[in-house]
Amino acid sequence: MSPPEIAARCVGLRKSYGDVVAVDGLDLDVHTGECFGLLGPNGAGKTTAVEMLEGLLEPDAGELEVLGMRWGEDDHALRQRLGVQLQETQLAEKLTVEETLDLFRSFYDRGRSVERVMGIVELVEKRSAWVSRLSGGQQQRLAVACALVSEPELLFLDEPTTGLDPQSRRQLWDLVLEFKASGRTVLLTTHYMEEAHRLCDRVAVVDHGKVIALGTPSELIATLGAEHIVEFALAPGGTADDDWLRRVPGVEDVRRERAGIFLTVSEVHRSVPALLTELKARDLELAQLTTHHATLEDVFVALTGRHLRDD
Amino acid sequence: MISPRHPLYQLTRSRLLEFAREPEAIFWVFVFPVLLALGLGIAFRNRPAEALPVAVQNGPGSAALARTLDAAPELRASTLPSDEARNRLRTGKLALVVVPGEPTTYLFDPTRSDGRLARLLADNALQRAAGRDDPVPVLERRLEEPGSRYIDFLIPGLIGLNMMGAGMWGVGFTIVQFRRKRLLKRLLATPMRRSHFLLSFAFSRLIFMIAELAALVGFGWVVFDVRVHGSILSLLVVAVIGSLSFAGLGLLSASRARTIEGVSGIMNLVQLPMWIFSGVFFAYQQFPEVMHPYIKALPLTALNDAIRAVMTDGTSILGSIPELAIVAAWGIVSFGTALNLFRWS
Question: Which of B5, B107, B124, B305 has its CA 20 to 30 A from that of A51?
């Protein structure tokens, strides 16, 4: 198999703001045709890293290559081939959907028709509505549409679904999947593990400006050594030692968080009855018991001891 | 003609649309200056000169003296006891007190122009009544034609003020808003040419300037019969230079600011001295002469002088080249400095 074509690459990328190191030696390879996700909590340096790749921020150190070109050589030509959606951009409030897209379309030599892009993001009916009168989901779809008018080879999406309701989020996911299906490349940042799981071929888990894990979502989950999480809490007064919990059949790992105890297990149907028997033998009463498939969130927690989101 | 798909066309069009959809902006640029002109034009309209109040101190022959003075159309005379007459003179209610006797005495405050004027008028009336014969025959012609009234002075000043206000607020505000919403950064992520972005501000300013100019000149013409004595083309050239120059100053004021409050402070600081010194509401010649060179170096002073030369004096634009050079220099220096300082993100 020939090595994959590289759409974007950075090596040893660094950027600090005063004393704060935002990106601390970041290495990435984004393959052509894949959807690559940067997953990490707020403040992990994802946006800073992406804005350096987009040529909007000057790195302090490190190598950057985008679509085989470097920033500072022929930026105009390079920008013609990129689509960018920035975090928290507010488009002009008193322009309509169509006027906004006409404006963005005019910057590119080649691309899709505005009509077609409005169709893709399902805003045809809103073409004459002012941006300020759109819902959050519609505004976000318009922001992505502004990045799609050029029919880019590489699309950057910086937290495209933050703050959206589940339905709007799913609509945007469909957009991204459709774009990827046409053989083009997406670089996406998110702090939603479900989003990374659904959209991304490969995910880099980022924390404190560094990549701490890299792989397909299933590979990353496989690093936990087991695929299920059993979460339980004891009735007030009860305590359980890690020692005997680890000896319950099938338990790979034990984690505690507030009142909850989290067991990483390979087979729920073996570990849960064993756990119940042990609890009964020790006269401990359960307050709560749930199980779920291990997710990227569990991967992040296992790596850092923290959650992706603070809620 | 550039095509509708050209970025410069699209950028200019979006500037114009956004502005036209902002009711507050329309008020400040079009309605406010017209209201200002209307209010000041009415307050300072030319009135027939009022008769000056004078008094004759009670004494022998005072009644006859008062009748003689009162017969002069510019004077209104009465007789008063000595104390009261002096009191009223001191408090400014009288311009002059005449004390009958040999010789007749004039009491007045020489630092007040109405006092000096009343003294001359009263003396003239008394001497003529006593049989003075003026050896030089004279004829009076009263000047009341358009061009010499306060409103004729005011309208050009308001045009200049509007070029400054609309140029600076229009460009400065929009740019800071773009920066605050991260829209500048978003545009930078496209292949948009930065020069197209900046030029779109110049073009949209020029288009609105024509409308603003038409509104003020048209209003002055229809309501107060304020004429443009020079050529309309000259006025347009002056206005184009003025508008672009203040758009440059607006760009400079907004080149670093991240907040609306920040840019408002800077622009008020820049504009306030010109509101006062640049001869918008009253002639700057009223300030001490040592200040004139500095006042004349301000862009609004130079612009107002050039507008008045074309509108009021009707002189050729060639006569205003030094003023236009000052205006243009401010614009070019501001624009160049702004380009170097400009913060895109």
Answer: B5
A154 and A33 within one domain: yes
For the stretch B231-286, pLDDT in tens is 999 999 999 999 999 999 999 999 999 999 999 999 999 999 999 999 999 999 99
Per-residue pLDDT of A208-263, as tens digits, reads 999 999 999 988 888 887 788 898 988 887 888 888 888 888 888 888 877 788 88
CATH number at residue B87: 3.40.190.10
Residues A180 and A289 in one domain: no
Cβ proximity of B319 and B339 under 8 Å: no
A63 with A205, same domain: the answer is yes
Which of B36, B40, B228 minimizes the C-alpha distance to B147? Answer: B228
Q: Which residue of B has its CA nearest to A89?
A: B182
Q: pLDDT digit string (tens) for B59-68? A: 888 888 899 9
B5 interfaces chain A, CB cutoff of 8 Å: yes
Q: What's the CA gap between B14 and B35, in Å, rounded? A: 28
Asked whether the beta carbons of A190 and A203 are under 8 A apart, the reply is no
Size of interface A-B (CB pairs under 8 A): 69
The pTM for the full model equals 0.81
Structural domain contains residue A299: no
Question: Is residue B120 domain-shared with residue B90, that is, in the same domain?
Answer: yes
Asked if A95 lies within 8 A of B10 by C-beta distance, the reply is no
For residue B170, give both structure tokens.
């229009």
A300 lies in some domain: no
Of all residues in chain B, the percent with pLDDT exceeding 90 is 66
The reply to whether A121 and A183 lie within a common domain is yes
Contact list, A108 vs chain B (CB under 8 Å): 190-191
Does B261 reach chain A within 8 Å, measured CB to CB? no
**Nearest residue in chain A measured CA to CA from B21:** A94
Please indicate, yes or no, whether residues B244 and B266 belong to a single structural domain of this protein: yes
Q: Which helix (H) or strand (E) holds B222?
A: helix B194-224
